[in-house]
Amino acid sequence: MKPARGGKALGPAGSLPPHARDGTRIAGAGYCPGASSFGIECWEMPSTVIQSINYDPATRTLSVWFVPSGNRYDFNDVPPQTYAACRKAWSKGRFFNAFIRDRYSYHLVEQSPSG
């Protein structure tokens, strides 16, 4: 992983300096409150359906924040390969609908005040 300006590597939340692990926006990473946990990656999505995603490889949990509600749902037992493919997909919403939505159990974790 290449160091960012200032010599600090960016990547999974666990590799960030402590002040950068509190769920704030960091160099392309989206706002994900769970990003304070070691090993969790968080990415803001260029999507009209998905605001951001957060993946915990230890639990294989994919957290998804949706637009426009801002609600967060956790999808259980999502393989790392599915998460990686989602990050690379041209259309995050289409990928989500085809490969995640009806294939993994899920539950509402956090309801946005506006949602």
Percent range of helical residues: 10-25%
Q: How many strands, what sense, and barrel or not for the largest sheet?
A: 5 strands, antiparallel
How large a portion of the residues is in β-strands, by DSSP E? 15-25%
Instruction: Give the overall shape.
Output: globular
Order of helices and strands: EEEEHHE
Secondary-structure blueprint of this entry?
Layout: E1 41-44, E2 50-56, E3 61-66, E4 72-75, H1 80-88, H2 92-99, E5 106-110
Antiparallel strand pairs: 1-2, 2-3, 3-4, 4-5
Helix pairs in contact: 1-2
Account of the 3D structure:
It contains two helices and five strands; from the N terminus they run E-E-E-E-H-H-E. It is an alpha+beta fold and 115 residues long. The protein has a five-stranded antiparallel beta sheet with strand order 1-2-3-4-5, with helices on one face. The longest helix has 9 residues. The protein is globular. The N terminus is likely disordered.
Keywords:
23% strand, alpha+beta, single chain, 5-stranded antiparallel β-sheet, disordered N terminus, 115 residues
Quick recap:
The protein is of the alpha+beta class. 15% of the residues lie in helices and 23% in strands.
